[in-house]
Each structure stands twice: as C-alpha cells, then as structure tokens.
Amino acid sequence: MATINLSSNNDIIIPTNDSTDYRGLAGDDTYILTSQKNSTSVSIIDTEGNNVIQLPEWSKIKSIVVAKTALKITCDDMTVFTINGADKFSYDIGGNLTSNSLGNIKTFTEFVNIFNLTPPSSGTVNTSTNKIVFDDAFRTLFEVTVKKEDNGNKYYLNNELSPDLALSSGEKYVFDLNDATASNHPLSISETKNGTHNEGVSISEGINYFIKGYSKTEQEFSSSFSSDNSLENAFVVFEPSSDDTVLYYYCLFHNGMANDAKILIDNYVEKIPEVVATSIAVQSVGASDYSFTTQGLQANDPILTLERGKTYEFEVSAQGHPFWIKTGQVSGSSSQYNDGITNNGLSNGKLIFTVPSDAPSTLYYICQIHSNMTGVINIVDNNNGTIIETSSSNSDSSSASPPVYGYSLDIELAFGNDQDFIPTSGYDI
To answer: What is the β-pairing status of strands 173-176 and 160-161?
Structure first.
C-alpha cells in the first residue's frame, strides 16, 4: 500500500488515491471525503493537531464500522475511508473548507450516534444505512432508478418497485436522480395521482430541485433531463408539512411510472370503503380475446356491468397483454381511467377498481397491444343482475346487440355484422 506523508502545516487534503495511506504530521489538517467513480480504498492516519473530517453537501454514506478509536466509512460507489485515531478527529457535516464553509461540527461519539451506534470498548459495531448530507445534516436518501416492466418504464426507489413512502413532517428527504436509467425521467410530487398526466399539478411548497448543486425551478430542472444527457448532482429535496396527508410522486415526462404509489405523511391512514370486493378472473385467449370468469359465468370479451360504490378485483393472468380500463376504446396507454383504480395496465396480478360515484356511464377494457382484445364496461347505480352479459362487444354499448344464444352467437362472432351469411339447413337460427 502506497503512503503519502503530509506536511507539518495546516493542510487541506482530498484523499483520492486508491490503496493509499495518508499520514498527517503536525498541524491542524482537514480531510475532505469525496466519492470516486470507481471503488477506492483510502486510509487516514493523523494523531497530531486538531484534525477535521469534512463531509460536503451531497456526500452519501452507505455503511459505517466503528471501533474504539477507529472508523470505516463506505460512501457512494463503494469508496471506503478508514480513519485511524478517529476519536481524535472532529467531524464537519456539510462543511467544505475549499469554499470557506463550515457545517455542523460533531465529536467522534456524536458522529457515530447519528447512526445509532456507540464506540465499543473492544471489537467493532456496524450498520448499513442510506443517508446523504443536505443542509448540514444527514437526510434519508431515495436512490431513483428506472426499469422496464410489462406495462412500461417504472420507478424503483432504493431497488424497490414504486413503493409507498411513510414520511414525517418537518424532515427533509432527498430523491437522487443521477442514475443513468433516470436521465430522462424527472421526478416531482403532486396531490393528484399521476400529477399533470391526470389533470393535476406539482406541489409548490416544501419541494426544491437541484442540478450541479444549484437550486432550479421545476421547468429548469426538467429541461436538464433527456435520453442523451448524463446528469450530475440531480436531486429533488422534499420537506412535508403537517398540513400534508397523502401525496403522490410521478414522472414529469411520462405517464404511470409510479404505479399510483402514495406518500403518506405523519402516519396518515387512508379511509378504505367498507365494501365486499367481487373477484373477476381475467385471462388471455391467444392474442384475440380476454376471457372473463365470475359468479359462475365465463365469456370472451363480454359486456361488463359494474355498480358505482362497489369494489371489483380483477385477477389478471395475461402475460404479454397489459389490461387497461379506459375512457376510450384505444390501444396503447392513452385515455386511462384511474379514479378508484389500483394497478391499471398490469399483465399479471390484481387490478382493484372501486367504482367512484361520479364514474362515467361507459368505460372500456382493452389490451395495450392488441386492439381486438376489448369490450364495454357499463357503469350503473344499481346492478341487480350479473356482471357478465353473455354477448361479446368490441364497440360502444349504445350500438351493442342484445344478448344472443346458441348458434346465432357463434355466427355473429365468426362473421360479424358486416358480412353476408347464408346458413345451411344444419343451423338452428
């Protein structure tokens, strides 16, 4: 391991050389810890003078190991700093002597206490964490990545698919969007599910956007994002207020990337309607139809009748055929109807639809990819009949034919209404 001996002056050191011991001599030295692009291992040894470890703004800590007089800090990109004689150092959180700024100064014990650790009399103690320095304090960090799922690109936070978040008012939280997969997906927060894609707006209070350490407006922030742009220090900082209850994070550019994930403030609990859900199994029949089964009935692409105020659970098993409920009978991901719906557009799993009191009288189900896998959903105030009508419908309910049975149904499905058909004597019509 290489060794760099420092001077007897008051040195400012930024230790960057991999597999290197930095040995301080006399003088009051300041060591500024910065993560490197590649995994780096640095050792700091300095027992003379009043020495300081500085962790500047946006510094991340992934884990720490604490001994009686030593400390190992793992930062972003697996940069590891081992500090010998750590109990003789003070720790400056948020300071940066290169810009003549001081942050929040802590002793060795105070510093490790931030991570709920105490220097042991022997051996070591350790913890994994996910913290970032902002405003001279360690904040909870959400690292944002984007992965392709069946129904499009989705946000992952700390490697978890679009999780709900439980946050506390008065605390600051940092969303890190520096991963290459997030370079075209600027994140914001709204009081409305899916934000501006669902006639909502981004919140304006308690949220701040940063690019390269500089505060930006939402417009300036989003304009820095593109598929061709490599981001540097792109962060969203959010501080909820006590007036907040439930919010939603979303992508400013693209619809449906957060799966309607919620941000619940101060242990807010949403009121869930006390209704009994009706289960409806949905499967694909090749690339031609959806098969629905419920209440002892089965049909391909039938007309559905749902009642306002009731909850329906669509158990979807249709790999490769994303199942959408929409206001228009169009493929793709446009015209989504998301009020009261959880997991719209999934291929496998449970889509839950609690029909709102103001739901339109006609909706549609349709495959994102195959436009012939579709049908009408009639919304009524009282449904005393069955959910599935025995006739199929791939058009607006206003022009739908009345229920038909026997061979006539097979004929209609096989030939459609726009083709001439002369039945043989073997058919009963």
So the answer is: unpaired
Intrachain domains 138-265 and 278-404 with the same fold: yes
Right CATH number for 138-265 from 2.60.40, 3.40.50, 1.10.1740, 1.10.10?
A: 2.60.40
Q: What is the DSSP letter of 355?
A: -
- In the Cβ-directed half-sphere of 34, how many Cα atoms lie within 13 Å? 15
Alpha-carbon gap, residue 330 to 324, rounded angstroms: 10
Top-level class of domain 278-404: mainly beta
Domain ranges of the chain: 2-132, 138-265, 278-404
Q: Residue 99 and residue 122: Cα distance in Å, rounded?
A: 38
pLDDT in tens, 97-142: 878 888 999 999 999 999 999 999 999 999 999 999 999 999 999 9
Distance CA 50, CA 70 (A): 16
Q: What is the DSSP letter of 400?
A: P
Give the C-alpha separation, 34 to 60, whole Å. Answer: 9
Nearest to 135 by CA among 13, 237, 242, 30: 237
Q: Helix or strand or coil: residue 144?
A: strand
C-alpha distance from residue 129 to each of 73, 80, 114, 118, 375 (Å): 11, 14, 11, 15, 49
The pTM (predicted TM-score) of the whole model is 0.66
Q: How far apart are CA 72 and CA 41, in angstroms?
A: 10
Our CA angle for 224, 230, 236, nearest 5°, is 50
pLDDT digits (tens, 9 = 90+) for 74-107: 998 779 999 999 999 999 999 988 788 889 999 9
